[in-house]
Fold this protein.
Amino acid sequence: MTPMTIESQDPRAVVDRLYSVLDPLAHPARMRALAAWTQTEVRRDGGGSAGQFRALLDTLDARGPHGRRLAVQAAVIGRDLT
């Protein structure tokens, strides 16, 4: 999987790429990929408490029930790192 970054990018484009990576995966692999991606992005965003990672969570939340679940899971994973 190619690393995705949210640095200086439109959160909508990042969410589209995230979906394209996660969608073909079986649920266990999808959750592992989401966890690995979240950990990387929280570290890059300096803890994830504000800034671009938060914008990504907001964009996921706006995508409906599936995006909302991904946002909650990413937020929980991110919080575990801080």
The chain has a mean pLDDT of 83. Residues 28-81 form one domain. The CA atoms of residues 14 and 20 lie 10 Å apart. The chain is about 70% helix and 0% strand.
